[in-house]
Design brief:
- There is one protein chain.
- Helix content is 26%, strand content 0%.
- By secondary structure, the chain is mostly helical.
């Protein structure tokens, strides 16, 4: 049976291996973010969906 890691072990930061690539298939493509003006319909839509 494996023991539960303690606080020190859980909160410790370990530097990653510099030879290891964190992106398995390369980094993700950049995403486009669109900022739109407030729509007074949003609260009603939220209520309908929640």
């Amino acid at each position: 049976m494996r023991r539960m890691p303690g606080f020190e072990e859980i909160t410790r930061y370990r530097d990653p291996d510099p030879a290891e690539d964190p992106w398995v298939n390369g980094p993700p493509a950049p995403e486009t973010i669109t900022i739109t003006p407030y729509n007074p319909e949003w609260p009603r839509r939220y209520q309908a969906l929640s």
